[in-house]
């Protein structure tokens, strides 16, 4: 291929859709590196601190789409202090100067200020897509700036962000000339939204295919909106508070009947069980259904609905569906690919809503299942072994037994064998989250069998350093390892230091790693940032110079070309 | 009952154990937990937790010795966004009270009561009697109080503990006359 002219090589590279493949071809030779970098349109930065924004822009001048991720995954569960970092502003500033052609920006777990949204909007009036996932730091003022300046915006997707409410006028900032919206998601906004402006907006955006409303949108408004958007494919309903005999409800049923393209439904906050009937007409076409924010819907009501959803591929529900409800899912939804069962009663003792029985039922009915997130009160090895036999296509398997360190209730054994069966049977497993009572043995199995594992989450598991070492030595494709409350210490940390340069990051909290161990790692591996994150309440207790024997509460290690970051708060020490 | 958890052969494990010392030398004893890990009220000490897991308890089932689940930071692993939505919904539901409709055979209209106001069945009965006394016919007060539960079944009020009743009651129905007497008779 080195004899082909560059245009041909570039053309061939055009068929590589995965950024990983493009990363690989760019390392073949200088010529390919050059061709690849000039023709790269979409860039993914998995860790915002792994590389400086300037370097990215310099290498890929033709970049049109940029995705950046900030905080480590455990930030989702409040394990990362609030102002740890992950700021979007530097990226937007540098892009504004060096990357004029930027059309799409996707940020996840980053701190995005109104100032940065303003800058983004003014610098990129041709911005086509803005996707913010699990971000924070901005308000509806920032959204107003985007709506005002980005005239050709096609996609504004806000997923589970913490957004400060500064009023409802932001939506009215979309000018009358804006007709380009194809996807609008503001479900995470807590405040009121100008319903009239919204209805006018959706009416003039004839290509709108995805619309996710927030809780403030009434049923009356929803009915009017649906009447104007009969071609919608994805809908997130607003609040579904309505008397089922009310006229608004009747209009809603009528509107739903007209939406023949609807394939995905979510929202349903506050919905009363009786009102679920409104969507019965859509169920046979449904591919995606998210009822995980509807605690008023109990198993019996859900079951009536699910029976009609035979094309369903993705289902998110609360555990009030119960084991029996899951059995109905298993018999009705043969095309199911992804299932998430969330807990509805986090703090109370409550009744055992779903157990291993529900999972076994699902596995025997839905053999195509490849992605699972399952919160339950108990799990047995026998059940996991059965699941492994029935479903060999898992790529993502996340099991959360609510009581940390709980053994198999039938045999009182750890769940090593159960998870071992999963990793042995599911050869394409890329992501795994463990829970329950687990010894080093489960890690022996993971190291040996989980050849394609990329992300592993460990909590309250293992007996000794050996556990962690099995994983580091065995999983060749490991990219992210996150561990909490497990007895892994310096010996494990330092056993295979070269491994961390092949990974994106390692997180360890409430383990046995000491300050001395972290220092040793940092000294051996200059291209890693070893961050020691101290909890705020610690700073009074701690001495000026803690000894090397002092156990580190939180440690975050990641490979980087950028050296130590200069925006770390004072409770983060970069060794 | 043995140790309760299935460990691999300890000697074999020891022989392959990783240590920082030279081979052949014994590993140092594990240092006692430092003060910093036990001082924090919001976290459990890791060693306490592991001790709890390893000790066999009577009855065979290794139960948790943790005080409350809520003390473990970041567990269960649910996104704050979802947790916050839940808390808001729960608060709203609790604040709204537990209003259920009450119908009485023969009465021209229904009533609504807030179950949370009553402490038990006695108070509930008294309140209902009070509410419907104007409708009682000259036949007297033979009636049975029933309710419709989550599954849609018609149940006699009074069989289950009060809390269980309030959490599963969707509406109340006062049955009067012959039907009621027959039903009550069979339950006594």
From TrEMBL, chain A:
The lineage of its organism: Eukaryota, Viridiplantae, Streptophyta, Embryophyta, Tracheophyta. It comes from Musa troglodytarum. One of its GO terms (biological process) is pollen maturation. It is found in: Nucleus. It holds the Pfam family F-box_5. Keywords: Auxin signaling pathway, Nucleus, Ubl conjugation pathway. Gene3D superfamilies: 1.20.1280.50, Ribonuclease Inhibitor (3.80.10.10). Residues 3-41 form the COI1 F-box domain. This is Transport inhibitor response 1-like protein. Part of a SCF (SKP1-cullin-F-box) protein ligase complex. May interact with auxin and auxin-responsive proteins. GO terms for molecular function: auxin binding. InterPro entries: COI1_F-box, F-box-like_dom_sf, Leu-rich_rpt_Cys-con_subtyp, LRR_dom_sf, Transp_inhibit. Pathway: Protein modification; protein ubiquitination. SUPFAM superfamilies: F-box domain, RNI-like. Residues 61-107 form the Transport inhibitor response domain. The keyword Nucleus applies. One of its GO terms (cellular component) is SCF ubiquitin ligase complex.
TrEMBL record, chain B:
Residues 44-58 have a biased composition (Basic and acidic residues). It is found in: Nucleus. Keywords: Auxin signaling pathway, Nucleus, Repressor, Transcription, Transcription regulation. Gene3D superfamilies: Phosphatidylinositol 3-kinase Catalytic Subunit, Chain A, domain 1. GO terms for biological process: auxin-activated signaling pathway; regulation of DNA-templated transcription. Residues 97-179 form the PB1 domain. Its main location: nucleus. Residues 17-69 are annotated as: Disordered. Aux/IAA proteins are short-lived transcriptional factors that function as repressors of early auxin response genes at low auxin concentrations. This is Auxin-responsive protein. It comes from Musa troglodytarum.
